[in-house]
Write a structure and sequence with these properties.
Length: 586
């Protein structure tokens, strides 16, 4: 393991790439006297231009003279292609906004996008913001229970979906009194029920001019659901001002320039797919390409080659899968357009950084952030030496520190483990959890925003990830809340008690493992294991499905009766069990 070895920019000199100075200039210089108003000025705030994110992603870019430039180049799983210019984006998002408004959707109401990565997902996202409504993107692989939990909590009034997801929406709908409108973007000749309406983007009259909702910086914009240790998922509420930091971090960390072709392979059901798969690139007026298909090394390399992708934002699990395929498929493709690579979501192992430098001639740059931060907060910057395995340094304008786990005071000495804390107040920090002020209040202590992640900082100011401070499972960069899995397990007729914990996995970093006690008269068997797994997959999602179920006679509990996941997790990772003095003896 070459952990911590520095990869300097000198090693990046590649004959095939044109070397241009990074947008950030130098990290040290950018940090001096930094103010977010740099970005506000570039966005035209103060000149009276709309603050509304939807307008900024489309109308503003057209006004900059890029109306005919491709905004979205889309490719489907069967190789279908669509291209939308920034003018199309402007007009079609107007169309969506006006159409929803005419059907009674109003500012501040929650509109859910429950779609695969089809063009309508991207266009409707912008349209919903123009309308002043709150956009709630959800991963289309969610089962009806995951869907219903999040729609119920948000009091969502409208779901935009596809024919293939209608059965799930219909089943969830029985539990959702606030859901008035289900929009189907590919209804064709499908028989629609009450409250279900077809919307055909190609057939709808195009709305050339639309008065966007006069959003203020603090007007709610995007609501992303994220998992915690306790309780159901929490709705992380962002506001239109988030644009300021999403715009600037995209420019400085992802280094997007006007002629780039950018690919973020994250689904907009997760925050990476919105902050950097919609808002970041389009606010910078950059062309982005989308592939609505799952992972496949050959498919991905062909896509990178065919689309001449220059900047690619990916994730460690995908990189590990590509590493498994080796160099042969890499060499079969011309990836010479690539010039910058970045990664997010899980620890990026040093091997992956070195491998990508060997395979693509470019190292992946790790970036660290969360649904709650809304933008990258710690990162490796183009032009700054990378320490392989480190997450890099705080973004200019972000103050990060390692905090003592008990006092939440910053720790001065390098290398000591503590909680990664941030000084609150950057533009894209969440403004609350929906309906959950107590949960939000717990995110702060001693004047710091608490990430819930443990880390260290070294003498050069580089941050290193150590692990999460809670029981949340990070599987392939997707957070799974143990409570949600346990609740689904308990709904199975054979299950008496359950605990869901992380189990190490060579590709996904972690997967869900469930410990289950059975009701009297039920026998453990491989068939029952499979049955319970499928039960959870259907209700929640393939990601939240336990990859293994251990049938046990009892679960470790504290004397007060609380199940202690930490002991089960430590066993899975072969770690010391920690303080077990409060555990109940069997
Ligand atoms: O535990 C950290 C891990 O992912 C969490 C945030 O997950 P989510 O809110 O779903 O947002 C993911 C995409 C921004 C963090 O609290 N995480 C994220 N980036 C990294 C990471 N862990 C290690 N290294 C990273 N670069």
């Amino acid at each position: 393991m070459r952990n911590g070895e520095t990869i300097g920019p000198a090693l990046l000199e590649l004959p095939r790439t044109e070397v241009r100075p990074p947008n950030i200039g130098s990290w040290e210089e950018a940090r001096k006297g930094f103010a977010w108003s740099v970005a506000e000025r570039e966005l035209g705030w103060g000149r009276g231009d709309p603050v509304n994110i939807g307008w900024n992603l489309s109308d503003r870019i057209c006004r900059l003279g890029r109306a005919q430039k491709p905004a979205l180049v889309w490719e489907g799983a069967e190789g279908q292609e669509r291209c939308y210019t920034f003018d199309d984006l402007r007009v079609l998002s107007n169309t969506m906004a006006a159409w929803l408004g005419e059907r009674g959707v109003g500012p501040g109401e929650r509109v859910c996008l429950f779609l695969d990565r089809v063009p309508e997902l991207y266009l409707a996202f912008v349209g919903i913001l123009k309308l002043g409504a709150v956009v709630q993107p959800l991963f289309s692989a969610f089962g009806e229970e995951s869907l219903a939990t999040r729609l119920l909590d948000a009091g969502t009034c409208c779901v935009v979906t596809q024919r293939k997801h209608l059965p799930k929406v219909r089943r969830a709908r029985t539990l959702l009194p606030d859901l008035r409108l289900v929009v189907v973007v590919d209804a064709g000749d499908a028989k629609l029920g009450e409250g279900e309406v077809a919307f055909d983007l190609d057939a709808e009259p195009r709305v050339e001019s639309y008065e966007v909702f006069p959003a203020q910086p603090e007007t709610p914009s995007v609501l992303h659901y994220t998992s915690g240790t306790t309780g159901q998922p929490k709705g992380a509420q962002h506001v239109h001002r988030s644009l300021v930091s999403q715009f600037l971090t995209t420019k400085w960390v992802l280094d997007l320039k006007e002629d780039d072709v950018y690919w973020c392979n994250a689904d907009p059901g997760w925050v990476t797919g919105t902050s950097y798969g919609i808002i970041g690139p389009w606010s910078n007026g950059v062309t982005q390409v989308v592939l609505d298909a799952g992972f496949g090394a050959e498919r991905w390399y062909s896509f990178l080659e065919k689309r001449r992708v220059t900047v690619w934002y990916s994730a460690p699990t995908a990189i590990r899968l590509l590493m498994k395929e080796g160099l042969v498929p890499v060499r079969r493709h011309d990836l010479s357009a690539l010039r910058h690579l970045a990664s997010v979501g899980e620890p990026l192992n040093p091997e992956a950084v070195h491998w990508s430098r060997d395979a693509y001639g470019l190292p992946f740059h790790d970036t660290f952030w969360q649904t709650e931060t809304g933008c990258i907060v710690v990162s490796n910057y183009p032009g700054m030496p990378i320490k392989a395995g480190s997450m890099g340094k705080p973004f200019p304008g972000i103050t990060a520190a390692i905090l003592d786990l008990k006092t939440f005071e910053p720790i001065a000495e390098p290398g000591r483990v503590g909680m990664i804390g941030l000084v609150p107040g950057w533009p894209s920090m969440i403004r609350g959890y929906w309906n959950n002020p107590a949960g939000y209040a717990k995110k702060f202590a001693n004047g710091w925003y608490l990430t819930g992640d443990r880390g260290t900082v070294d003498a050069d100011g580089y941050f290193w990830f150590v692990g999460r401070d809670d029981d949340v499972i990070n599987t392939g960069g997707h957070l799974v809340g143990p409570f949600e899995v346990e609740s689904a397990l308990l709904e199975h007729p054979a299950v008496a008690e359950s605990a869901a914990v992380a189990k190490p996995d060579p590709v996904n970093m972690e997967v869900v493992k469930a410990f289950v006690t059975l009701k009297p008269g039920r026998e453990a068997s491989p068939d029952l294991e499979l049955e319970i797994m499928n039960f959870v997959r259907k209700r929640l999602s393939p990601i939240a499905m336990p990859q293994e179920i251990a049938f046990v006679p009892s679960l470790p509990r504290t004397r007060s009766g609380k199940i202690v996941r930490r002991v089960l997790r430590a066993q899975e990772f072969g770690e010391p069990l920690g303080d077990v003095s409060t555990l109940m003896e069997d």
